[in-house]
Amino acid sequence: MLSDASVIFQIAGIGIIVAMIHTILKQMGKEEYAQFATLVGFIIVLLFVINGISDLFQEIKSVFLFQG
Prior knowledge:
The chain has 68 residues and is mainly alpha-helical. The protein has helices spanning 4-27, 31-64. It has two helices and no strands. The longest helix has 34 residues, at 31-64.
Protein backbone atom coordinates (compact mmCIF):
# COMPACT_ATOMS: atom_id res chain seq x y z
CA MET A 1 0.00 0.00 0.00
CA LEU A 2 1.24 3.48 -0.79
CA SER A 3 1.67 6.01 1.95
CA ASP A 4 -1.22 8.33 2.63
CA ALA A 5 0.53 11.46 1.39
CA SER A 6 1.44 9.94 -1.97
CA VAL A 7 -2.17 8.92 -2.63
CA ILE A 8 -3.30 12.48 -1.91
CA PHE A 9 -0.66 13.87 -4.27
CA GLN A 10 -1.67 11.38 -6.98
CA ILE A 11 -5.32 12.41 -6.69
CA ALA A 12 -4.34 16.09 -6.78
CA GLY A 13 -2.16 15.47 -9.84
CA ILE A 14 -4.97 13.70 -11.65
CA GLY A 15 -7.27 16.60 -10.78
CA ILE A 16 -4.85 19.18 -12.16
CA ILE A 17 -4.29 17.22 -15.38
CA VAL A 18 -8.03 16.66 -15.90
CA ALA A 19 -8.72 20.35 -15.27
CA MET A 20 -6.14 21.34 -17.90
CA ILE A 21 -7.53 18.86 -20.43
CA HIS A 22 -11.07 20.07 -19.71
CA THR A 23 -10.08 23.71 -20.20
CA ILE A 24 -8.22 23.03 -23.44
CA LEU A 25 -11.05 20.97 -24.92
CA LYS A 26 -13.67 23.50 -23.87
CA GLN A 27 -11.74 26.35 -25.50
CA MET A 28 -11.48 24.30 -28.69
CA GLY A 29 -15.27 23.96 -28.71
CA LYS A 30 -15.26 20.26 -27.88
CA GLU A 31 -17.45 20.51 -24.79
CA GLU A 32 -18.72 16.93 -25.04
CA TYR A 33 -15.17 15.58 -24.99
CA ALA A 34 -14.33 17.92 -22.10
CA GLN A 35 -17.18 16.48 -20.05
CA PHE A 36 -16.12 12.95 -20.97
CA ALA A 37 -12.53 13.67 -19.87
CA THR A 38 -13.83 15.00 -16.56
CA LEU A 39 -15.97 11.90 -16.09
CA VAL A 40 -13.01 9.61 -16.80
CA GLY A 41 -10.87 11.54 -14.30
CA PHE A 42 -13.62 11.27 -11.69
CA ILE A 43 -13.87 7.50 -12.22
CA ILE A 44 -10.10 7.09 -11.85
CA VAL A 45 -10.10 9.05 -8.59
CA LEU A 46 -13.12 7.06 -7.41
CA LEU A 47 -11.17 3.84 -7.97
CA PHE A 48 -8.34 5.23 -5.81
CA VAL A 49 -10.82 6.05 -3.05
CA ILE A 50 -12.54 2.67 -3.25
CA ASN A 51 -9.16 0.94 -3.00
CA GLY A 52 -8.30 3.01 0.06
CA ILE A 53 -11.61 2.23 1.73
CA SER A 54 -11.10 -1.46 1.02
CA ASP A 55 -7.70 -1.33 2.70
CA LEU A 56 -9.24 0.49 5.66
CA PHE A 57 -11.91 -2.19 6.12
CA GLN A 58 -9.25 -4.92 5.89
CA GLU A 59 -7.30 -3.19 8.68
CA ILE A 60 -10.42 -2.86 10.82
CA LYS A 61 -11.27 -6.51 10.24
CA SER A 62 -7.77 -7.63 11.20
CA VAL A 63 -7.86 -5.54 14.39
CA PHE A 64 -11.21 -6.76 15.64
CA LEU A 65 -10.81 -10.40 14.57
CA PHE A 66 -7.21 -10.57 15.85
CA GLN A 67 -5.88 -11.82 12.55
CA GLY A 68 -2.36 -10.89 11.59
